[in-house]
Amino acid sequence: MDEQFKRSRLAKGDILLSIRGSVGRLVMVPEQLANANITQDNARLTIQNHVSSAFVFWYIQAESTQSRMRQATKGVAVRGINIGDVRALQVPLSSKDEQVEIVNRIEARYLKAKAKVGRLPPALLAKAFRGELVA
User: Which end of the chain is more exposed for a tag (fewer CB within 10 A), N or C?
Assistant: First the structure.
């Protein structure tokens, strides 16, 4: 019976992409979820060894890719994207070393922006208490 679920079995480094409901949400599969199974509301993207999973993850997160998925989403009650439309997404690939360098730069920018956002509310509160937010 386990054999029938082989295609939905996760491996570390796979990427899960929601294809029903909130189309386009992503998560990298951690080691703790290896051999778990997924539902039909998600697509399991198995990444080949010569490709960086993180590179594909960030490429799919890009607004241009998310926009293409939104345009391909269909349905009324439950919105979704067909797996064929997901397969049609073409990820431009460079060497794995270049992919890793691109991911490192993206993640550095992300962490820098996240740190700034984390400091924003206290800075706004401080301005509010000093009366600097109103004319």
Answer: C
Residue type, 79: R
d(CA 44, CA 28) in angstroms, rounded, equals 10
- For every residue of the chain, which 3-state class applies, written as one string? CHHHHHHHECCCCCEEEECECCCCCEEECCHHHCCCECCCCEEEECCCCCCCHHHHHHHHHCHHHHHHHHHHCECCCCCECCHHHHHCCCCCCCCHHHHHHHHHHHHHHHHHHHHHHHHHHHHHHHHHHCCCCCC
Edge-to-edge order in the sheet of strand 15-18:
26-28, 15-18, 42-45
Distances (CA, A) of 29 to 8, 114, 115: 13, 22, 25
pLDDT, tens only, 73-93: 999 889 999 999 999 999 999
pTM above 0.85, yes or no: no
Residue 53: pLDDT band with limits 50, 70, 90: very high
What count of other Cβ atoms lies within 10 Å of the Cβ of residue 21? 11
